[in-house]
Amino acid sequence: MRADRQRKSVGVETTFERDVADAATQSRLLQALFSQALLRLTEKQMTAYTLTVKIKYRNFVQVTRARTLDRPIADDADTRLLLAELLHSAGTGGEPVRLLGVTLSGLDPERSAGQYRQLDLFEHL
Prior knowledge:
- By secondary structure, this protein is of the alpha+beta class.
- The chain has helices at about 25-45, 75-90, and strands at about 10-20, 50-55, 60-70, 95-105.
- The chain has a 4-stranded antiparallel sheet with strand order 1-4-2-3.
């Protein structure tokens, strides 16, 4: 593995000791994973535009759902609602899951969350 390669995504996932069947618990756990992934992204001073949810069922069938936004992903009500939508669109519907994961991609290393590159005055003359 090369240490100087450009990062393409930041993700967090967890495999459960026991399958999780309750939809509310699945959603809560996914929200926690999202918070962890977003923290890692912030520590790397990057922003992301694509949110991917990964679900692995007890029979080891794996499903992913993703959405690319026109704005940087942030820890806000809209993004949390999107997480719930992606989980629902994966069809869990109370099916027991073995693994949940969240990946943030479409990274922009030029802008860290809430910070923008200062333009040179002479660039625009």
